[in-house]
Prior knowledge:
By secondary structure, the protein is α+β, with helices and mostly antiparallel strands. The chain has helices at residues 10-18, 24-42, 50-65, 108-115, 158-166, 182-188, 222-232, 250-255, 277-288, 307-322, 335-346, 349-372, 409-415, 446-460; strands at 45-48, 77-81, 119-124, 136-137, 141-142, 144-145, 148-152, 171-176, 191-194, 214-219, 263-266, 296-299, 375-379, 395-396, 399-400, 421-428, 434-440.
Amino acid sequence: xxxxxxxxxxxxxxxxxxxxxxxxxxxxxxxxxxxxxxxxxxxxxxxxxxxxxxxxxxxxxxxxxxxxxxxxxxxxxxxxxxxxxxxxxxxxxxxxxxxxxxxxxxxxxxxxxxxxxxxxxxxxxxxxxxxxxxxxxxxxxxxxxxxxxxxxxxxxxxxxxxxxxxxxxxxxxxxxxxxxxxxxxxxxxxxxxxxxxxxxxxxxxxxxxxxxxxxxxxxxxxxxxxxxxxxxxxxxxxxxxxxxxxxxxxxxxxxxxxxxxxxxxxxxxxxxxxxxxxxxxxxxxxxxxxxxxxxxxxxxxxxxxxxxxxxxxxxxxxxxxxxxxxxxxxxxxxxxxxxxxxxxxxxxxxxxxxxxxxxxxxxxxxxxxxxxxxxxxxxxxxxxxxxxxxxxxxxxxxxxxxxxxxxxxxxxxxxxxxxxxxxxxxxxxxxxxxxxxxxxxxxxxxxxxxxxxxxxxxxxxxxxxxxxx
Length: 469
């Protein structure tokens, strides 16, 4: 099987399959080969759906032979996060409570991908119920960083990010509460988008009105991510949140040139926790290099450090909402998740109100910012990938953390603004580990983050991990 197939973009795979230059069967066979070779090393895939994928590929090829259009993602293999239910394919949520669970119905994001012609090839590893920024659970163990398997892939969409990086699949689904699409993308050298809440409807969910948790796309390039976003975005009867996609063309935005005079703000540390000096230097260079494309780039002070406590208060309430049906089984959950739920239960109504007021303040800060600037750039992860055995790093740039989740504060304080945020690779450290920069725009500004992200990608692309070369 031609290994170069797994180096093709999702855009190119779909084009070739639809043109019948490449069969969907060959695409799936090539990616299954990579999974067989690479997964023992990095543990990105937790459940392989080989038979399902081969059958779906045969159906795509039949449709094309009969002159029917399978959709814009025809034949593209997708890794589905193990928190997104898949009909007939084991979905464990990374929890021993669901170790043998096989759903009868697909999550909405999976339904939409299948309707667009994409093929589910595997489920990807996640911490238990996606509660954690290092991908490890008691069912499948830890996912390792494809650039250095001794290190973390981050989380909670760590399996999706790691698998994408080595070519196990061309697209991946993810979710993001405090950075679960963005931080793994930064650690593994791929692209992850937290969309505006409601743009990608979430179902099933016990909290359909929540704007903290979103579903979204992950890919190896901004254009691939945009193509996937087009397929999964838009209103649904499954969701009470309505964000229109009428007239919106995300792929065109990813292919557009940077507008001359675009106002770009750069802030090195939005969360006030410190940032690794090498990461900050690489991100700063990527931001200011946009001036060569005609952008107006300036460093600004933008302090969201006050939002760290607000996020933890709202996250506590979210954990109770999400796991209300498990309060009598906390002893069967991992200690990290059970502790988060207990912290939520211990909060008072006043604590939750303070969290909501903190979120309102973040929204106002962003509203004022985007009156003067078109986009905000800031480092996505404050630290480089750390040893996979650690739950979290103890220090950031030499400073002890105030809480164990402070290291992902650069993403979770952004969550509270209800804004789209894209993590895109912008370089490698001296140890040849990926660095991601966060591209943030006003609510509904996905086109802006895609255009800016693609401009960064054109000059800062990092390629595949060495082990996959």
